[in-house]
Design a protein that fits this description.
Helix content of chain B: under 10%
Shape of chain A: globular
Number of strands of chain B: 11
Order of helices and strands of chain B: EEEEEEEEEEE
Radius of gyration of chain B: 13 Å
Strand content of chain B: over 45%
Largest sheet of chain A: 7 strands, mixed
Largest sheet of chain B: 6 strands, mixed
Oligomer: heterodimer
Shape of chain B: globular
Number of helices of chain A: 0
Strand content of chain A: over 45%
Structural class of chain B: mainly beta
Amino acid sequence: NAGVTQTPKFQVLKTGQSMTLQCAQDMNHNSMYWYRQDPGMGLRLIYYSASEGTTDKGEVPNGYNVSRLNKREFSLRLESAAPSQTSVYFCASSDGTGGIEAFFGQGTRLTVV
Amino acid sequence: QQQVKQSPQSLIVQKGGIPIINCAYENTAFDYFPWYQQFPGKGPALLIAIRPDVSEKKEGRFTISFNKSAKQFSLHIMDSQPGDSATYFCAASSFSPLVFGKGTRLSVIA
């Protein structure tokens, strides 16, 4: 059972470079999320997609864009990476938005130099 | 504005002790309060959750206590083991994505 799969697991970028983090879930969930985790800051929501075809900003959306490609896939794009975007990024999915268990991927550790 | 405040940031207990992690929330619309457990290099995973219609929920060695009037909830780990060493996050939501506390790093020493 794969659950939520994120690629890549590790990435080093130079300031100004762009990249896309990929996420796919095989649980037929409607909702998908991108969080970032920084030391002492917990998990902060970047963007989410309540259902296929919709996306909404979370707490820290600046510098990011997202695409809900289909029901399974939700990608996060950094157009011009900055050192402040060095973080561990987690994708998650759930059957609905709010009030229900969210399943997390293994994370992508991104370093921007 | 931090909607869920978690304390302490870190906690060290001896094996068999009962660590307690506390969270406080501000939004009275929240109606789902889960705790997630995260091991190094892994994503968070749901440990136990409670809804505000009950004041306590137990699953194995893990217990959530919930105080609706105080807008607080806590996680107790009975007979803690070294394998419980992890980071614990409280969270809250209503018809919205989970809002997480900042996390507590728990170390259980033998």
